[in-house]
Amino acid sequence: MAQGDIVGLLIMATVAGLAMPAGAILATYQGIQPKWLEKELRHGILALGAGALISAVGLVLVPEGIKDVSVLAAIMCFVGGALAFMALDIYLAKKKTAGSQLAAMLSDFVPESIALGTTAALGGGTMLLGLLIAVQNLPEGFNAYREMLPKNKQRSNKLIVIFVLMALLGPLFSLLGFYYLAQFPVVMSGIMLFAAGGILYSVFQDIAPQIRMENHWLPPLGGILGFLVGLIGFMLEG
Which sequence ranges are marked TM in the entry (predicted)? Predict the structure, then answer.
């Protein structure tokens, strides 16, 4: 890969990561009127992230992950990811911490960043996966910030700075995937399937229950829009 392509990979990974603090900044704004619109918008943003996550699983992680492993290995990795995310959920619930959404966000951001780097190393396009990571990170950053919302503005600013620093994990793990893990396609397949299982668990456990509103029908369209982003990118790259 040319030097310019590596720079492009790093830019894509950085932009995808910066969607997290962008979502946090969006969460600080609570002046939308009327209030019903603000509530529907918040649920729609969550649905957008869920749609993008499912799109990443269905169009990228599973199709790429099953290429180099047996059926049994695919099952073990996929179910293992779901069980690992469930165990993390149980641990955080017992600790009564406000960081479950933050942990879920990092748990899918890191393996997806690795997948972004390995995809680039193997000559594949990074636009689709990078775009999906960004689209899902925006509502995840929004939700994680709201969950950890500090009471004073000074701490709020520090939390946003932390989100910005976490965005640097994107290019870091993309480089790890590009220079090292791309040499081990079976390992990469396992990581992708593990992430896919964990992501689907998170969608049904943490995100989908928060989308539903009684007698409101617009928020689910955010999920359709999120999946549509992946579908369009998949068709353009294919």
Answer: 7-29, 41-62, 69-93, 113-138, 159-180, 186-204, 216-236
pLDDT in tens, 202-231: 777 776 666 665 656 566 566 566 667 766
| Residue 1 forms part of a structural domain | no
83-134: pLDDT as tens digits: 888 888 788 777 766 666 777 778 778 888 988 888 888 777 778 788 888 8
Structure tokens at 51: 């749609």
Q: What is the pLDDT of residue 38?
A: 64
Domain presence at residue 12: yes
Total domains present in the chain: 1
Q: Comparing C-alpha atoms, which of 233, 203, 201 is closest to residue 132? A: 233
Dihedral sign computed on CA atoms, order 160, 162, 168, 173: negative
Pick from 124, 129, 123, 114: which is nearest to 170 by CA? 114
pTM passes above 0.85 = no
In a domain, 29, yes or no: yes
- For 96, the domain range is 6-237
